[in-house]
Amino acid sequence: MPVSAAADIVELSQGQLRQLVLEQQVLGSEAVSSKAMSDFGGAVIDVRGFLSDGRMTYRLLLQRDDGSVVELLYNGPDGRRVSHNSQTGKEVSSEARSNNGNSGNNGNSGNNGNSGNNGNNGNNGNSGNNGNSGNAGNNGNSGNSGGRGNSGRGGGNSGRGN
Q: Distance between CA atoms of 94 and 115, rounded to whole angstroms?
């Protein structure tokens, strides 16, 4: 029998995710991101939602304080972790890796990146402007530059996601 289970998985657009949250069918990405950061430390650098067999799963990339990046999977309706060894976990991970962004939805171009950390970080000016690239399918997230943005004291640039 041919493997067709992967064909049943669909990456949700930002609009589709918002609709599910408004209908209270799933937790918001902010709640899931907060949970991930609380459990593992670091900062969420990418959030995507997938629908498989009627179940919604969040896939997050989290950059830990040591610079390593980990993939975390969460159940959309209740925020419980999804095992990477489960069928859903395997499908979501595989689909996310094979589809580097939601090119049909112009990435996250309407959001100016995930630049929620643009304020002054101590006396370091802006702490980096990483966020999502938003370049219509150019891998969705630009990743972390590893630098500290404008490291001079004081205001620095207000900046936006790349």
A: 27
Q: Are 98 and 122 in contact (CB under 8 A)?
A: no
Tokens of 122: 């101590």
Note the pTM of the prediction, 2 decimals.
0.60
Q: 94-130 pLDDT, tens per residue?
A: 999 987 654 433 334 333 444 344 444 444 444 444 4
The string of DSSP letters for 53-76 reads TTEEEEEEEEE-TTS-EEEEEEET
Rg (CA), the chain: 17
Amino acid at 158: S
- The number of helix segments (H) and strand segments (E) in the chain equals 3, 4
- For 62-102, the pLDDT digits (tens) are 999 999 999 999 999 999 999 999 999 999 999 999 876 54
